[in-house]
TrEMBL record:
Signal peptide: none annotated. Its cofactor is [2Fe-2S] cluster. It comes from the Bacteria. Keywords: 2Fe-2S, Disulfide bond, Iron, Iron-sulfur, Metal-binding. Residues 96-166 form the Rieske domain. It holds the Pfam family Rieske. This is Cytochrome b6-f complex iron-sulfur subunit.
Length: 168
């Protein structure tokens, strides 16, 4: 009686392995489309504060951002990035985007009108980019390119001294 093992082991050659990997990726891309793999990203990818994901804090750990009902106040002595033209801030718990363009503060809802994403934003060249599905909005909330078709809601802003007040 031959002593045959019920198991066999082996390795694919590199060229064969590469062919199978590339074929698998090609099949997946053709089936799902490339947008399936690239359109939804993590909020850390589009962080408005590259130093760590949270707004700057003063020596006592205060961000200078207060949310009370429909009113948001921002201490501009702490949130110094907003003092520069092109500065911006995403206030997640209030679902608000704030930017300063041309010396004027603009506050918008951070809820994208396309699919309701509210944390995946970047702001470049006075354009808000929702990385969920690629919608772009100008600094006033108007749609620059879709898939969104409706503008972002605009909130009133007022500066008194070093305090920015946003009313929803």
């Amino acid at each position: 009686m031959d002593n045959l093992s019920p198991f066999q082991t082996g390795n694919l050659t590199n060229s064969r392995r590469e062919f199978i990997e590339k074929s698998g990726v090609s099949i997946a891309l053709s089936f799902f489309g490339i947008g399936f793999f690239t359109s939804c990203s993590d909020s850390a990818d589009m962080n408005p504060n590259p130093s760590g994901g949270t707004p700057p804090k003063d020596a006592s750990g205060n961000t200078g951002i207060m949310v009370s009902g429909n009113t948001i106040t921002v201490d501009l002595k702490i949130q110094t990035g907003l003092n520069m033209s092109g500065g911006w801030l995403l206030i997640n718990n209030a679902k608000v985007l704030v930017s300063k363009v041309g010396g004027t503060f603009v506050a918008l809802t951070s809820v994208c009108t396309h699919s309701g994403c509210d944390t995946n934003w970047s702001f470049t060249n006075s354009t808000y980019n929702c990385s969920c599905h690629g919608s772009k909005f100008d600094a006033q909330g108007n749609v620059v390119s879709g898939p969104a078709t409706n503008p972002l809601k605009v909130y009133s802003t007022e500066v008194n001294g070093d305090v920015l007040t946003i009313k929803k």
